[in-house]
Automatic annotation (TrEMBL), chain A:
<feature type="region of interest" description="Disordered">
    <location>
        <begin position="226"/>
        <end position="245"/>
    </location>
</feature>
<keyword id="KW-1133">Transmembrane helix</keyword>
<comment type="similarity">
    <text>Belongs to the connexin family.</text>
</comment>
<feature type="transmembrane region" description="Helical">
    <location>
        <begin position="77"/>
        <end position="97"/>
    </location>
</feature>
<dbReference type="Pfam" id="PF00029">
    <property type="entry name" value="Connexin"/>
</dbReference>
<keyword id="KW-0812">Transmembrane</keyword>
<keyword id="KW-1003">Cell membrane</keyword>
<dbReference type="GO" id="GO:0005922">
    <property type="term" value="C:connexin complex"/>
</dbReference>
<dbReference type="InterPro" id="IPR019570">
    <property type="entry name" value="Connexin_CCC"/>
</dbReference>
UniProtKB/TrEMBL annotation, chain B:
<keyword id="KW-1133">Transmembrane helix</keyword>
<dbReference type="InterPro" id="IPR038359">
    <property type="entry name" value="Connexin_N_sf"/>
</dbReference>
<keyword id="KW-1003">Cell membrane</keyword>
<dbReference type="InterPro" id="IPR017990">
    <property type="entry name" value="Connexin_CS"/>
</dbReference>
<dbReference type="Pfam" id="PF00029">
    <property type="entry name" value="Connexin"/>
</dbReference>
<protein>
    <recommendedName>
        <fullName>Gap junction protein</fullName>
    </recommendedName>
</protein>
<dbReference type="InterPro" id="IPR002267">
    <property type="entry name" value="Connexin32"/>
</dbReference>
<dbReference type="GO" id="GO:0007267">
    <property type="term" value="P:cell-cell signaling"/>
</dbReference>
<keyword id="KW-0303">Gap junction</keyword>
Length: 261, 278
């Protein structure tokens, strides 16, 4: 189970996303996950081995490293990416549930069901409306919250986004104050800023998607209200007509049956 | 065979699980197995090489590491995840057995064509009858394994916090020696994370157990009040097909008798034409 499997799972959600959602997913996979796997992991690969302290005191290096890096950048980003991509599974579960209901209707032979084939149900794309709209909006909201929380955690833990070259450590068992040198600080700063920038872009995309969904919702509502005003009970009229026809047919059937007996 | 292989095997079980079961499976794969593979394994990667003791005595480092870490966290979690996900295979085996029986039944009753056999493979089994017992057993085993491993964890590593320093007196270390663990804070964070997800999984399993028991009791109550309405776990789909066949037969008979009557009473033909249900 690795990033590839996550991509497979989330690829399915792509079909039911808005265009902004699809862009967000692409940015997530190419500019964040891929960069993490092919580049960032190598940069941080020797973070502890090459963390050198100016002392021969055994244990001082371990303690100082642990003091300044409670959790590695790479792990924080990995957790952030997992948490940020998981709300999309809510949408996937909702779509799967709707598909399951439609398949049940189809199998029962419901006349309301307009599908010719069960394969059509499987490949059908659902519009983001009704309960699915709420699920989708919640998932975007959670994404935003997780992104913000992780960015704050990052800033809080590492006091800004810059990686210093030198750290002064006086934790036991280090004798007095000891100079410790970080491996590849500039490269780490570059990648940290890159990941922060892409994270901000993702936040912007999520906010834009949220605005888009809200705008669509209000537009649809006003259209419905307008329709109701000009064509009161427009939909109900068609249903009543159908009901009347059904009644006539059943009446005539009954007469026929009575005539036979 | 790796985690991806296990994922492939268990995805098949997903189809015959309850909704809570599917959520449980997602939590296991995304928040436990995936976090283990992409994050936790690299945190514990240098646990032995970076375990430093304040001594030059050869062998002291190895002996102290072995004394304080009899089984690494990573290995314990891997074992836990494998044992916890395996009871779902009981369900998979039972479903496969039921499908085999259904196929045999179909062939015996003359419906053994490829289309019907495909339908058997595709349709979702109801969790009823002996499958219900198998499913409940698998959930109970899952709970048991989770609880046992959490207890084992607590026994081997009292408290869930990783200490920075351990004092070691094992031979050949001279007297007491300070040994320093690598990345203790990061390890504590991940230990707590895995513990929390394990607890969430335990809660989900208990909820699923309660749901299954309540559903079974409700079904039993319905059966008591309506004894004719039960379906066999075997031919649930088949019985509905046979029902449809019976209905079709009745319709054709009725059609035939209606046609006879129409022939005998041509005056009723007009009225009959208007009747679309006949």
């Amino acid at each position: 189970m690795d990033w590839g499997s996550l991509q497979t799972i989330l690829g399915g959600v792509n079909k039911h996303s808005t265009s902004i959602g699809k862009i967000w997913l692409t940015v997530l996979f190419i500019f964040r996950i891929m960069i993490l796997v092919v580049a960032a992991e190598r940069v941080w690969g020797d973070e502890q081995d090459d963390f050198i302290c100016n002392t021969l005191q055994p244990g001082c290096k371990n303690v100082c490293y642990d003091h300044f890096f409670p959790i590695s950048h790479i792990r924080l980003w990995a957790l952030q990416l997992i948490f940020v991509s998981t709300p999309a599974l809510l949408v996937a579960m909702h779509v799967a549930y709707r598909r399951h209901e439609k398949k049940r209707q189809f199998r029962k032979g419901d006349q309301k069901c307009e599908y010719k084939d069960i394969e059509e149900i499987r490949s059908q794309r659902f519009h983001i409306e009704g309960a699915l709209w709420w699920t989708y909006t919640c998932s975007i909201f959670f994404r935003l919250v997780f992104e913000a929380v992780f960015m704050y955690a990052f800033y809080f833990m590492y006091d800004g986004f810059r990686m210093p070259r030198l750290m002064k450590c006086s934790a036991w068992p280090c004798p007095n104050t000891v100079d410790c040198f970080v491996s590849r600080p500039t490269e780490k700063t570059v990648f940290t800023i890159f990941m922060i920038a892409v994270s901000s872009i993702c936040i912007l995309l999520n906010v834009a998607e949220l605005c888009y969904l809200l705008t669509k919702f209000f537009l649809r509502r006003s259209k419905k209200a307008g329709n109701q005003k000009h064509h009161p009970n427009h939909e109900n009229k068609e249903e009543t007509k159908q009901n009347e026809m059904n009644e006539l047919i059943s009446d005539s059937c009954q007469n026929t049956v009575i005539g036979f007996t | 065979m790796n985690w991806a292989g296990l994922y492939a095997v268990l995805s098949g079980v997903n189809r015959h699980s309850t909704a809570i079961g599917r959520i449980w499976l997602s939590v296991i794969f995304i928040f436990r197995i995936m976090v283990l593979v992409v994050a936790a394994e690299s945190v514990w990667g240098d646990e032995k090489s970076a375990f430093t003791c304040n001594t030059q005595q050869p062998g002291c480092n190895s002996v102290c590491y072995d004394h304080f870490f009899p089984v690494s966290h990573i290995r314990l979690w891997a074992l836990q995840l494998i044992l916890v996900t395996t009871p779902a295979l009981l369900v998979a085996m039972h479903v496969a057995y039921q499908q085999h029986q259904e196929k045999k039944l179909l062939m015996m009753t003359g419906h053994g064509d490829a289309k019907h056999l495909e339908e058997v493979k595709k349709h979702k089994m109801r969790i009823a009858g002996s499958l219900w017992w198998t499913y409940v057993c698998s959930v109970v085993f899952r709970l048991l394994f989770e609880a046992v491993f959490m207890y084992l964890f607590y026994m081997i590593y009292p408290g869930y916090q990783m200490v920075r320093l351990v004092k070691c007196e094992a031979y050949p270390c001279p007297n007491t020696v300070d040994c320093f663990v690598s990345r203790p804070t990061e390890k504590t964070i991940f230990t707590v994370f895995m513990l929390v997800t394990s607890s969430i999984c335990i809660v989900l399993n208990m909820a699923e157990l309660v749901y299954l028991v309540v559903r079974a009791c409700a079904r039993r109550g319905r059966e008591h009040s309506n004894p004719s309405g039960k379906g066999s776990f075997y031919g649930h789909k088949l019985s509905s097909e046979y029902k449809q066949n019976e209905i079709n037969q009745l319709l054709t008979e009725q059609d035939g008798s209606l046609k006879d009557m129409l022939r005998r009473n041509p005056s009723l033909q007009e009225k009959g034409d208007r009747c679309s249900a006949c």
